């Protein structure tokens, strides 16, 4: 869903006159919604492929949009990857090609963001964003519409894929 789609849908949901609010007001609410969803649910997962020709430990600096490490997989091998993450520095031990999966921080949305911007959270939660916008705008003058939008917002956010809070450890030499 794009920002334009979300704004148009929010105006329909809350019976909002689009002319009474600026584009900046709408996108700041969309940004808030995207950040809430990003904190509650699994966001977009990016993949970086790296190659290590040495058997030694090699340091990789993760990109600026890195939020948290999702997993590391050695290509064409089931051998566990030995690594350590310190801040945004990832140390990988052993030779091979690796795929680094990480959760991406969504970009900030502001008045300069184009209307064609697609939200950077799980696609199943895109439809919640217009309800958040409608709720925030309607809560000051139409409590019934605001409550209805809040209920729908909560419903869509409850359906999102929750973050995995368990600790993953590879078990080596155990059968």
Characterise the protein shown here.
This protein is of the alpha+beta class. It folds into two domains: 3-42 and 106-158, no CATH class; 45-104, Immunoglobulin-like, CATH 2.60.40. It is 32% helix and 23% strand. The chain has four helices and six strands. It has helices at residues 3-14, 23-40, 129-138, 143-158; strands at 45-52, 57-61, 66-74, 82-86, 89-93, 96-104. A three-stranded antiparallel sheet has the order 1-6-3, with no helix packed on it. Strands 2-5-4 form a three-stranded antiparallel sheet, with no helix packed on it. Strand 4 and strand 5 (89-93) form a beta hairpin. Helix 1 (3-14) packs across helix 3, helix 2 (23-40) crosses helix 3 (129-138) and helix 3 packs antiparallel against helix 4 (143-158). The longest helix is centred in the N-terminal third of the chain and has 18 residues, at 23-40. The chain is elongated.
Strand proportion: 15-25%
**In terms of structural class, how would the helical and strand content be classed?**
alpha+beta
Overall 3D geometry? elongated
Q: What's the SSE pattern? A: HHEEEEEEHH
Q: Provide a count of the helices.
A: 4
Tell me the helix content: 25-40%
For the record, the count of structural domains works out to 2
Termini separation (Å)?
A: 47 Å
Major sheet: arrangement of strands: 1-6-3
Average pLDDT for all residues: 87
Low-confidence stretches: none
Major sheet: size, sense and barrel closure?
Answer: 3 strands, antiparallel
Count of distinct strands: 6
Q: What is the gyration radius calculated from CA atoms?
A: 21 Å
């Amino acid at each position: 869903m794009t920002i334009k789609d979300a704004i148009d849908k929010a105006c329909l949901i809350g019976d909002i006159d689009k002319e009474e609010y600026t584009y900046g007001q709408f996108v700041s609410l969309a940004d808030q919604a995207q950040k809430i969803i990003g904190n509650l649910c699994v966001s977009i997962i990016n993949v970086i492929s790296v190659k290590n020709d040495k058997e030694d430990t090699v340091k990789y600096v993760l990109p600026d949009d890195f939020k948290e490490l999702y997993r590391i997989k050695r290509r064409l091998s089931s051998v566990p990857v030995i690594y350590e993450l310190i801040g945004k520095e990832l140390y990988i031990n052993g030779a091979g090609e690796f795929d680094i999966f990480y959760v991406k921080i969504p970009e900030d949305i502001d008045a300069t963001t184009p209307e064609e911007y697609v939200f950077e959270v799980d696609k199943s939660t895109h439809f919640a964003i217009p309800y958040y916008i409608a709720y925030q705008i309607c809560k000051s003058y139409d409590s019934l519409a605001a409550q209805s939008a809040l209920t729908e917002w909560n419903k869509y956010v409850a359906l999102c894929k929750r973050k995995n809070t368990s600790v993953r450890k590879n078990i080596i030499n155990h059968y």
